[in-house]
Design goal:
9-stranded parallel β-sheet, binds zinc ion, single chain, 3-stranded antiparallel β-sheet, alpha/beta
Amino acid sequence: MSVSFELLGTDGLARRGRLATAHGTVETPAFMPVGTAGTVKAMMPQSVAGTGAEIVLGNTFHLMLRPGAERIAALGGLHKFMDWPRAILTDSGGFQVMSLAELRQLDRDGVTFRSPVDGTQYRLTPERSIEIQRLLDADITMSFDECTTWPVAEDAAAHSMRLSMEWAARGKRAFVERPGYGLFGIVQGSIFPALRSESVQALLKIGFDGYAIGGLAVGEGQERMFATLDTTLPLLPADRPRYLMGVGRPADMVGAVKRGIDMFDCVMPTRAGRTAQAFTRRGELNLRNARHRDDPRPIDEQCGCPACQSHSRAYLHHLIRSGEILGAMLLTWHNLQYYQDIMRGLREAIAGGALGHWIAAFEDEQARGDVPPL
Ligand SMILES: [Zn+2]
């Protein structure tokens, strides 16, 4: 029943695992490319798989507005609709609804909001969020929660977290158990250890197939994020996957894996790819920069992606300066490849008991910075 998680090995607090879903297995630590509106922007689905991704994230909020969850269900579900036969995790819509600010009305039962697409009024409750995710055919469904804002006072964070825990219990009751399909709860409580602990206890009482850490990467900074992981992760059961939502930069992910996180999602590699930014073993590059104009070298000579295998920095610079779509496609591909390479490296290092050495080499390369100009 449900999704199953096998812990294959550990190195310190870091974990090497395998998540089995209705649409295939996911080796962890894993990075999930974000496919907001039924597409990982600027990528063909086969190319996403080619980078090594085994799971992508879909977005309840965007898909319910357009083209609509019932329509996708009638067309055979999101896997078929977007031609992604592997695993899909959907977020609950909570994060996007909360960010609508004046367009939404929050009450204890749920949220009423106007579509930013066409102004139509919608109602999202924990039950409806779970139903939409079932219609999409998500292998992993996320609890509907209120993403606590930042910065936030402790009493406001407590109120928000307790509402999310009520909604988590309602979502669990609404979730239809099926083999290979799972429901994850989301730990809230901002940066306050007592609230995080209370949230974990509430979720454990309800019981979930996996546990996500929400409410981080919202501006609190890496130090507070790691401190929150340090106090929260030891409270979670070892035999369930742990997902850090919305993270992050390469160094954030490496530090989180070291602390015991198994799964990530972030728009950063795809969004950066559309704004001329490349993540590399030796830090971040902006290909728009004039220093690349005459450079025949690839972004990273050790990278196996098409941008690095076939194209020079000079060509990528030209594409970006000319506003050519291919520039966004190639840089997105490179960034997703690098993120998957990091995950592969982490998995091998944990399995081999060499994580400390791997992280030292990673930090050393990042600190060296880009190759000097020719
Ligand atoms: Zn590359």
